[in-house]
Amino acid sequence: MRLNTLGAIDQFVTGTAAVYSEPALNAALARAPRQAFQVTCDDVDGTSPTMTLSVEGSNDGDNWDPVSTPVDGETLSSTLSNVFRFTEDGGTPLKEFMRLKVELGGTDPRAHVRVSSCQRSALGGWSPAGFVSKYGGAWLDSRKHLVVTSDPDIDEWLMRKGSLGSFDQATGSKKPHVASVNGVQVVEFDGSASQNLQSNANLADWKFMHEAAGATIFVKARYTGGSGVQRLFCNSNGGSASAIGVSLDMNATNGQASAFVCNGSGTWVAYCYRTAALTQDEYALYELRWSQSFGFDFRINGGTPHTGSASGTPSSANPTAVPRLGSHSGGAVQFLTGDIQHVFAVPGVLPDAEAAKARNYFQR
């Protein structure tokens, strides 16, 4: 339900000095469970003008800490209206006050900057953070908690919620990049450079994904190039029947999406191919719910469920490998050329009503 609409900034900004949202709105900006922001820049002038918009939080209104940078050094057009959009959903608790900071870059920059917020109530009380806090598992959100020492290389992707460590990459050339797509920060993988991230948790921490009690996994991602099979989220040696774990994949040649649950005995517990389910450059929400008693439910963008094939017995052993993002679990082949926004993996099968709320959340 919509609660309010706020005009946080509406002014002509000249030069590179920081400009902030109205102080009188600091409490109201921190109060809403969910907010959708729209940033519009027009009447742009200057040499190579750019804009950065940051979110800051404070408990006393005087000392401010960075929360996120949803618009990071974006180039501004002087002939078109520049529009950026981002959301704040409360997954990381905000402090008592919140403010927005706008900084122009370039030489003698000038722009009319407007920032508005549509504030809404919580999604029926459901959030990824709350669910992981209660039941365990992991939630990665590209808008938050990326460790970048040398821009744009990502050293580590921290859990937005969960206690399963993080995903990292020590080799410089294989580090994915932080990027912005329509004002949303994403983790961008270049398959030609073998870029990927690997979990630094223990093997046993990820057993829940392939054990008999099953799991629910959502991945929001897209492919932007390349060919053949590309792995999104994989700890089963690329979905091999002789490995133990799971794999969510896509095929850039034919737009096919696939999911595997493997037990290491040479027979898949279940697998499914969705033919022509994907379109290059368009985001897709991969959804897998499965358990020995529930069966296998694999969907793309919440569409028709596919129940998969095979009926092997789930394994209770550790997976073959810890998960990787953007490649085969061995980290040597089948690299993703594209980007990932969300990874959500929890024990057990979300009931239909809960899955619908999750679907609604991740498809926003």
Briefly note the structural class of the backbone. mainly beta
Strand order of the largest sheet: 8-9-11-14-22-16-17-18-19
How far apart lie the N and C ends? 15 Å
Quick one: overall form?
globular
Indicate the percent of residues in helices: under 10%
Number of domains: 2
Main sheet makeup:
9 strands, antiparallel
SSE sequence, one letter per element: EEHEEEEHEEEEEEEEEEEEEEEEEH
Give the overall average pLDDT: 89
Instruction: Write down the Rg.
Output: 21 Å
Q: Which CATH architecture of the largest domain?
A: Sandwich
Percent range for β-strand residues: over 45%
Number of helices: 3
CATH class label of the largest domain: Mainly Beta
CATH topology of the largest domain: Jelly Rolls
Which consecutive residue ranges, at least 5 long each, have pLDDT under 50?
Answer: none
Description of the molecule:
By secondary structure, the protein is mainly beta. It has two domains: 2-120, Sandwich (Jelly Rolls); 128-362, Jelly Rolls (Sandwich), CATH 2.60.120. The protein is built from three helices and 23 strands. The chain has helices spanning 26-31, 128-135, 352-362; strands at 2-14, 19-20, 34-58, 65-75, 82-88, 97-120, 138-141, 146-147, 156-158, 161-162, 166-168, 177-181, 184-189, 197-199, 215-223, 229-234, 244-251, 256-263, 268-274, 284-291, 295-300, 324-325, 338-347. A nine-stranded antiparallel sheet has the order 8-9-11-14-22-16-17-18-19, with no helix packed on it. Strands 7, 10, 12, 13, 15, 20, 21 and 23 form an eight-stranded antiparallel sheet that branches. Strand 8 (146-147) and strand 9 (156-158) form a beta hairpin. The longest helix is centred in the last third of the chain and has 11 residues, at 352-362. It is globular, with a radius of gyration of 21 Å. The model has no long low-confidence stretch (mean pLDDT 89).
